[in-house]
Amino acid sequence: MTPVELDHVCAWMNAHVAGFTGPITATKFDVGQSNPTYRLDSPSGCYVLRRKPPGVLLKSAHAVDREFKVQKALAGCEVPVPKMLGLCEDETVLGTQFYVMEHIEGRNLVDPSMPDATPTERAAVIKEMSRVLAAIHSVDLVAAGLTEYGPPGHYFERQLARWSKQYRASETENIPAMEQLITWLTDNMPADDGQRTLVHGDYRIDNMLFATDRPKCLAVLDWELSTLGHPYADLAGVIMQWQLPPGGEGRGLAGVDREQTGLPSDGAFIADYCQRRGVPEIENFGFYLAFAFFRMAAILQGVKKRALDGNAANPEKGLKLGAFVPHFAELGIGATDWHG
Q: Where is the Aminoglycoside phosphotransferase domain (predicted)?
């Protein structure tokens, strides 16, 4: 942020954030391709600011106001979130909407293979992932005031239509695998089973903060894609991530000897989650997994388009991520016959 922008943010925080004292300095986090995120340091403490990116944006994308709303609603429940301190919807302050939340000191585990951990530690962290995911899907929507947080109706039909539209709006070339995947998802849409819960929309280990001394989740971050919908979308998102290569880029578990390293199989994680929620074995999980790959491909296409248009938080990284769109589409096609 520029010095002028910092002055504007400082003035706004003086008026809207209890206990705040300026001045502030800002350090941009490397994470957060979609919504730029900054650490703010001041005499009164450390804060985090998350804003919409500059430039022309796709309709309904980068909804920082929704992020703020859902995290504020979850305060005090079983889902760990940072304390929300203020939402600025006045775009004259910073040029875009933004919100400020508390800064939480914790571990951000980018790689789910956790190469520096012991098998026991890895198993405990993944168990915690399952516990928190089940907690998200068990939130009392009435008590949290979230009954209107998402539209009614068939979640996957709605999401397929939404992300197909977003993909078309950011399409830069014809990708045959994406066309094939969209057609397959349309033709194999399962019936609505009536499950309607809070869904995070991007639930994975690198969107969580853990305590430094134990496998305890302190906060679930990045709620931009959250809504009311079908919980299996989140569950499939976890399994999707694990199909990717391990390391800082793929952030997956493909090829990892899970038994030796203390990590559960896909089936074991799904079974643990189902037991926690008290739901039966999931039929046709291949559809949910294929959809997860499709949606991620559509998201990455949007990142690529913003990079080409000069609106990405990190244009070089945006183009690199965008290059994976065909690969995700192909993995989605492969997931259609998933058997666990």
A: 26-249
The total domain count for the chain is 2
Question: Do 184 and 68 have their domain in common?
Answer: no
Strands (E) across the chain are located at 25-28, 37-42, 45-51, 84-88, 98-102, 197-199, 208-210, 217-220, 227-229
> Tens-of-pLDDT digits for all 340 residues of the chain?
888 899 999 999 999 999 999 999 999 987 655 788 999 999 999 999 999 876 555 555 568 999 999 999 999 899 999 999 999 999 999 988 999 999 999 999 999 999 999 999 999 999 999 999 999 999 999 999 999 999 999 999 999 999 999 999 999 999 999 999 999 999 999 999 999 999 999 999 999 999 999 999 999 999 998 999 999 999 999 999 999 998 877 889 999 999 999 999 999 999 999 999 999 999 999 999 999 999 999 999 998 998 888 877 678 888 888 888 999 999 999 999 887 6
CATH code of 269's domain: 3.90.1200.10
For residue 113, tell me if it sits in a domain: no
Same domain membership, residue 229 and residue 155? yes
Full-model pTM: 0.89
Q: Give every CB contact of residue 143 below 8 A, 6+ residues apart in sequence.
A: none
148 and 234 part of one domain: yes
Interhelix angle 285-309/325-335, nearest 10 degrees: 170
Q: Hey, CA dihedral for 245, 246, 247, 250, is it positive or negative? A: positive
Verify that 149 and 231 share a domain, yes or no: yes
9-33 burial, b at 16+ Cβ within 10 Å, e below that, comes to: bbebbeeebeebeeebeeeeeebbb
Half-sphere exposure of 59 (CA within 13 A, CB side): 4
Return the amino acid letter for 175: I
Secondary structure of 177-199 in the HEC alphabet? HHHHHHHHHHHCCCCCCCCCEEE
Do 88 and 179 lie in one domain? The reply is: no
Domain carrying residue 157: 119-335
